[in-house]
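step: validate -> pass
step: tokenize input -> pass
step: predict -> running
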Amino acid sequence: MDMYRKDGRERDRKKSDIAVIIVNYNGAKDTIACLKSIEESTVLVDVFVVDNASGNNDIEEITREFPNINMITNTENLGFAGGNNLGIRCALDRGYEYITLLNNDTIVDKNMFSQLSHFASKNMAVLPVMYYYDMPEKIWYAGGIIDKKTGIVRHVQQTDNSKQNKQYCEFATGCCMMLHREIIETAGMLDDNFFMYCEDEEYSLRLAKHNIKIAVISKAKLWHKVAQSSKKGSPFFEYYISRNRMLCIKKYREDFRKTAYLYSTITRIVKMTDYFIRRDERYKSCMYAVIDAFKEQYIKRY
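step: predict -> pass
step: emit ->
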């Protein structure tokens, strides 16, 4: 059966307009919890789980709980961008009108998909307000700003109640965003070269190039178990977040101030020096990030 729905009954695939792409990597427990929350949605959606070559029994655990799920399995880890792109291609081939990228470490509100699909359009990507899972009343994301002087992305962490349900911003987090298929056909998919981190910053800048707006829908909600897929501060994190931010700035140099790349490079060198003095092996992550960004090399190091 192609379709995913709470009662398990088969139905015509063409009646569903929304495809949800979830990338799983050694996170079956979170993925299953996310899928269970999607079961409660007020609109029917079709879910595609892309397993990024998990090194355990994730596929078996997920399909045991959801035997009719659309499971796409990779023989290697394609990263966040590559995994999502595989799911996007499958959804586009099957004719879905709306594609939703969703982190596996999230719990969605039952009205989230209905709210997002109500506002999504051919020229506007839409996102929910995202709360911390451990602090369910505290906002993690309600929009985002890309600092053109430093290249750093900052989340807006409060909603403006004086405005309408739809609030525009310039940064769309990859944690959850709904895209009309024509947006993807116009602007393309995520950049596979980024592998992990800053692919959403790059995509947000690309959307702006195509005059596609980004809006947060305040009545659409989810709860995010922040940083479940990779530990913040790990060598993996230090390398990819540092390298990719510098590469993103270089790719869109005309959109940033001249200080942005300099700021990113200097702060990485300072951090590298601190790690080196403390005999912390993460100095190598910062060092390789600076070198690879300078040479514009998209290397998979971790």
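step: describe -> The two ends are 37 Å apart (CA to CA).
step: cleanup -> pass
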